[in-house]
Write a structure and sequence with these properties.
The protein has about 400 residues and is α+β, with helices and mostly antiparallel strands. It is about 35% helix and about 25% strand. It folds into two domains: about 140 residues, Creatinase/prolidase N-terminal domain (Creatine Amidinohydrolase, Chain A, domain 1); about 230 residues, Creatinase/methionine aminopeptidase superfamily (Creatine Amidinohydrolase, Alpha-Beta Complex). Helix 4 crosses helix 5 and helix 9 packs antiparallel against helix 10. The relative contact order is 0.12.
Length: about 400
């Protein structure tokens, strides 16, 4: 007879000790209290994983974690995904949704069980995963409650990483760096983007990495001017610059870097633009330290690009926070950006992927990036690939 339930809690282990989950939850609850929230409705897979250890690739199906100011956390998931609640999360209370259930009805039942009354209710207003129908229905049912946008309530706790989180990011950086080196070595005239991307993917997973949250990006020639284009059956040609962006994942924590390869000897213009962009990432590394503002770090890199007359092709923020990661992107953009006008100060334990990149129509792109850990007196570069315009035959 097959088992109907797991015999032990967390049969595959938790990614963190219970004490770390407790610390995270206490920090979130402190933020809830400050914001006047008695409950928080968490729908983003990053935040759910951060608080509980629950993870799935099935987050395209509706799910929610109800976090009260006191008491038990409660999941609302599909019946199939509830297997992950039982086996992967330290918090195991909740209701499951069958194919014939109305998700709103089950969510209301979970909120009632959590005694969601007339207090403030936080919801993730910047999350991709909260259906308007669910939010509207909860507002109608709990009409005496004040529904409060809650961006930052979990994310502010996530911004500074613990020692174990940094260890996972270091491992992810090793995986990303190996993948990048394999991709650069595999590049040559006549090879397709797909062939090279496949070698990168194989190397990263063989080293113990997990399914990447994006890419790997291997885009050749003028096609590299297309933002977030994925590898296709396009061959590398002599004279092309090939854009690489490779992100490694370990325990769902991410690190990434960006490099360029010239197929055959690079042109004088390619050398010049590469030199500018290498100068930009070096300026960012020099500026990144505790007490510096996001704006100051962004300006350090952006100024190098603008002085070279390439500012019109720089369409992006200079960087974004890195940490726990799920597709479609490996960054923690909702946690903290390195960007113009952002006056938030950097603190030791923050981790960023800094990405100075110029995108030039009909020519391609040029960029060099690193994953950087803010330390007590500066920053540490976690990714490890030569910072150069590599040349392939």
């Amino acid at each position: 007879m097959f088992a109907k339930a797991w015999k032990s809690e967390n049969p595959f282990g938790l990614p963190f000790e219970q004490a770390e989950f407790d610390r995270r939850l206490a920090g979130v609850r402190a933020n809830m209290h400050k914001a006047g929230m008695n409950h928080l409705l968490v729908t983003g897979p990053h935040n759910i994983y951060y608080l509980t250890g629950y993870r799935t690739t099935g987050y395209y199906v509706y799910q929610m974690l109800v976090v009260p100011l006191e008491g038990e956390l409660r999941f609302v998931t599909s019946k199939l995904e509830h297997t992950n609640v039982e086996a992967l999360s330290w918090a195991r209370e909740g209701l499951s949704i069958t194919m014939t259930d109305d998700p709103l009805d089950i969510t209301i039942k979970a909120c009632e069980a959590s005694e969601l009354g007339s207090g403030g209710v936080g919801y993730e207003d910047r999350a991709f995963f909260l259906p308007a129908r669910i939010l509207d229905g909860l507002r109608q049912r709990f009409h005496n409650s004040a529904f409060i946008p809650a961006s930052g309530v979990v994310e502010d706790v996530r911004a500074t990483k613990s020692a174990q989180e940094i260890g996972y990011i270091r491992k992810a950086a090793e995986i990303a760096s190996l993948g990048m080196k394999v991709g650069i070595a595999a590049s040559r005239e006549g090879r397709t983007e797909n062939e090279v991307a496949g070698k990168i993917y194989d190397a990263m997973l063989s080293m113990g990495g997990e399914h990447p949250s994006g890419g790997p990006y291997v885009i050749t020639g003028p096609r590299a001017a297309l933002a977030h284009a994925l590898p296709e059956r396009v061959r590398m040609e002599r004279g092309h610059n090939v854009y690489f962006e490779v992100g490694g994942i370990y325990k769902r924590y991410a690190a990434s870097s960006m490099r360029m390869v010239s197929i055959g000897p690079p042109s004088a213009e390619s050398k010049r633009v590469a030199g500018v962009m290498i100068g930009a990432i070096e300026a960012i590394v020099a500026a990144m330290k505790p007490g510096a503002t996001s704006h100051e770090v962004d300006t350090a890199g952006r100024a190098v690009v603008e002085r070279a007359g390439l500012g019109a092709y720089f369409h992006h923020r200079c960087g974004y926070s890195m940490g726990c990661s799920f597709p479609p992107g490996w960054g923690e953009g909702t946690v903290m950006d390195i960007s113009q006008g952002n006056t938030r100060k950097l603190e030791p334990g923050m981790v960023f992927h800094c990405v100075p990149l110029v995108v030039i129509p009909e020519w391609g792109c040029m960029g060099f990036s690193e994953t950087l850990l803010v330390t007590k007196d500066g920053c540490e570069v976690l990714t490890d690939v030569p910072r150069e315009l590599a040349v392939a035959s």
